Amino acid sequence: MASIDIQSIRKSFGAFPVLHGVDLTIRDGEFIVLVGPSGCGKSTLLRMIAGLEDVTSGDIRIDGKRVNDLAPKDRDIAMVFQSYALYPHMSVADNMSYSLRLRRSTKEKIASAVGGAAAKLGLEPLLERRPKALSGGQRQRVAMGRAIVRQPKAFLFDEPLSNLDARLREQMRAEIKKLHGDLRATSIYVTHDQIEAMTLADRIVAMHGGIVQQVGSPLELYDRPANLFVAGFIGSPGMNFFEGRYLVSGDHADLRLPNGTTMPVRKRDGVESGSAATLGIRPEHVILADNGALEAKVDLIEPTGFGIIMHVTIHGIPMKIFSQDRRMLKPGPTIRVDLPQDKLHLFESDGKRVD
Ligand code: ATP
């Protein structure tokens, strides 16, 4: 397995810049998940590591060795795509053994590698089938089997589960996690799926506009998002925000909303009184309480079975609350809520978090 070092990577397509200097060190055996909105450059970064895309400037090192000019086949990296990219005219076994046959491995080695991967992935009964005779989930397993057989230095996954239905995704997600536990292979995984990112990652890399916004464990990003972008991106439903001015009087601080109401906040060092600021709270952290400090007008109720998403308005600002209290299926026209201080996030006008 291998460490991967990404140093000051920039990428432009013609005059169009896509990545603006990405630095990232991926440890040997680590599972990294890249997340970010469509077009932020996740796939481009992955493809540059694989060697499928040129680097405009900066260096990529695998196990300390610069690979910028190395052909994809010489990087010893396996990529698993959303589209599976299986050879339709080959059996499952032949698809899986293809790279070893290219390398002229011995028959015994090939049989043992394919057998081992097939056993791990439950593919043994399917080895003689062609891809078209497989379900989507089975094809995805073959694509992973093909990657495992190569025993590459690292695995790159580009939204590998996004063509599968919800149940199968769940199942495959757990399988990928288990496989990583077994193989401890350095892995970089691109996804749009929050749950995949949270459950699979050792560290999540949140990207936006070709810039890395935060790198950290899933809980670090959830508990202490570094900026407004990460705060709004991680978590579902997304964090609620109140924009206003941060005002200090003595030992106390408030956020004054545009309509003149104030919300008490913990006083922070280093934020100037009177400066623009945004307060954030996650829907699941709002407390429903008969004697709560704030009144919320209930606009819409979305029961999910697991809980209830309530669309409410507080001080004229729309926000969401998540609750597992079934009485909330039929709330009155208004409810009362508290926003606990220890769950409030404060961001300065440039979007940076303040602790
Ligand atoms: P998604 O989540 O939608 O897959 P992404 O974050 O993976 O998005 P990329 O596929 O890396 O984004 O694309 C980043 C930007 O680069 C996009 O604006 C895209 O249109 C552009 N782009 C990607 N490939 C090329 C190319 N070959 N030529 C020109 N522009 C490209």
TrEMBL record:
InterPro entries: AAA+_ATPase, ABC_transporter-like_ATP-bd, ABC_transporter-like_CS, ABC_transpr_MalK-like, ABC_transpr_MalK/UgpC-like, Mo/tungstate-bd_C_term_dom, NA-bd_OB-fold, OB_MalK-like
Subcellular location: Cell inner membrane
ABC transporter domain residues: 4-234
Membrane topology: Peripheral membrane protein
The UniProt record lists the keyword Acetylation: no
Keyword presence, ATP-binding: yes
Main subcellular location of this protein, as a coarse class: membrane
Keywords: ATP-binding, Nucleotide-binding, Transport
Any one Gene Ontology molecular-function term assigned to this protein's record: ATP binding
Family designation: Belongs to the ABC transporter superfamily.
Protein name, as recorded: Sn-glycerol-3-phosphate ABC transporter ATP-binding protein UgpC
Gene: ugpC
